[in-house]
């Protein structure tokens, strides 16, 4: 077509219309007929029209080639006169450069075309067809501030006497849209954060750019100093540490537990992170890793301590909630992606390797509905605790398998330390175990002072009703100390109470006694409820066994022949064998009908043990004034905590089951238990004081 138009154009420019029509007729048969038709009916000369089109086409292609040449010359000059470094969209440096530009260039120059970003919200409603819930920003405390950054295109500025240009390059989808509609890039789309950057500098050396990038990194480090970087994995499909959260720094002093234990923990980690330690480990062929187990009831500061340690040692915290990890391969991929120096927090480690209870065989059809319900309850509680899909061997493999990274610190938390497998808590995987228990009066006092004292920068909280002098605050804190019973409440409980009187320390101190009494009443009621529930369970079990025995006796009485009796006997044998197989390893052998006797016997033994322990405890208490406490409340009167090396095969034997009501916390604590400073029997479920076990 273009050639036809060109032909018409050249012929007409030569002013030879008849030859043009003849030439066109040759190429398009019937052209002369069309020409006649247009002339007669529309009074239009077709050849003139074609000439006009030819001229326009020539002009446009001329302009295009001029533009292309101009662009080539421009980039040739740019390449000749500038040095440049490009940064990929997913590189942290990319973000750091943008942040620097946002803070130092855009605001100062008063740039008028910007992009804003606050936080990314994935629209679940669209992808999962769920109703999208409106965010309630009034109650959403950690709303991200809006950040203004450069948009697509070039931002120029002067830094260190050099002229810089930073180009933020359009991604393909936005580019397609802008070129199709001929809309300027910044109006065609918004940067999504994965756009590459090119940093250019006038001159022929990259050194000024390197210096500039260094400045951007320093600026980012300074900004991060007030925060802990917590990295988590949210998107299960790409199994990477995809989300970064900045949490305000939490000073270690705000986590209250035994100061001696705290110091020992800090010294241990400092020693491990020392440059010479790695060399020491390497030279001796010891894998350079360190593992800690933080265990104790819920709300005693395990997570808070981990965050505080990350802040203290300037490490990034990689957080994994074990029940949420999909399987071993995901766990392995996440561990492989860890940097060499970091803190890994594995929460609820006891969720790994929990075995399902054996299902009741079909032969046990005589069990009544209530039994089934009680089984259901058990499994529900297991479920509530969260069972991970990871296997124990998968976990052990990432902790110290051949392929596992060296140099990191692993902190594991658990509310059920006694359930952990011996292999998991052996030295090398868990080097130290740290028990965090219930709060002591002294820790409550410190918490009171922290809550109502001046802020970290020394400024008095602006929203306080009455600003009390420090001396008065200390007096109230001491008053509060005296009302809090020793190691009954969790720190989270006390913090919750104080938060109710956030602006009024006077009310907090005045109402403390009433709160304590109410909490103790609730604890006692919950304990009583649990005792009754246990009793009812025991009774039902006993009745079921009696019913079974009666059935058996009935069957024996009605037997018709020796063969039938033999068949019955074999059935019973098989059932016994099956039961034995189903029992967890280590469980004692039980006989039909003998279970009750065994448990009675056990109870008697326990009672005896309890008596002995109580008298032992009394003896100890008598001598406590002379000897420093090994367990329980710290030497300085702070919250119960204990740190100790991991003995081989520590799991299980050192703790005792108990239940803390109010907040329905169920936990295991070491054998010696005190309530309100008095020795208590360990037979009944009691509220723990969280005294460290004799590991
Ligand atoms: N020892 C403590 N000192 C100061 N605050 C504490 C302490 N323990 C708990 N808290 C407070 O209680 C809340 C819960 O604490 P945290 O999440 O650290 O407990 P946890 O032991 O990890 O609980 P869980 O086992 O349920 O995960 C936090 O707000 C924290 O500030």
TrEMBL record:
- The residue ranges of the BCS1 N-terminal domain are 56-255
Q: Give me the reactions it catalyses.
A: ATP + H2O = ADP + phosphate + H(+)
Q: What is its main location?
A: mitochondrion
Q: Where in the cell is it found?
A: Mitochondrion inner membrane
Q: Entry's SMART domains?
A: AAA, BCS1_N
- Report biased composition (Polar residues) as residue ranges: 630-639
**GO annotation, cellular component aspect:** mitochondrial inner membrane
AAA+ ATPase domain mapped to chain residues:
288-440
From the UniProt entry, list the residue stretches annotated as the region Disordered: 357-387, 528-695
Alphabetized, the UniProt keywords read:
ATP-binding, Hydrolase, Membrane, Mitochondrion, Mitochondrion inner membrane, Nucleotide-binding, Transmembrane, Transmembrane helix
Alphabetized PROSITE patterns for the sequence: AAA
- Quote the InterPro entries the UniProt record gives: AAA+_ATPase (IPR003593), AAA_lid_BCS1 (IPR057495), ATPase_AAA_core (IPR003959), ATPase_AAA_CS (IPR003960), BCS1_N (IPR014851), ClpA/B (IPR001270), Mitochondrial_chaperone_BCS1 (IPR050747), P-loop_NTPase (IPR027417)
Q: What is the recorded membrane topology of this protein?
A: Single-pass membrane protein
Where is this chain compositionally biased, Basic and acidic residues type?
Answer: 370-385, 589-621, 653-670
Recall the GO molecular function terms of this protein's record: ATP binding; ATP hydrolysis activity
**PANTHER family in the record, alphabetically?**
BCS1 AAA-TYPE ATPASE
Q: What is this protein called?
A: BCS1 N terminal-domain-containing protein
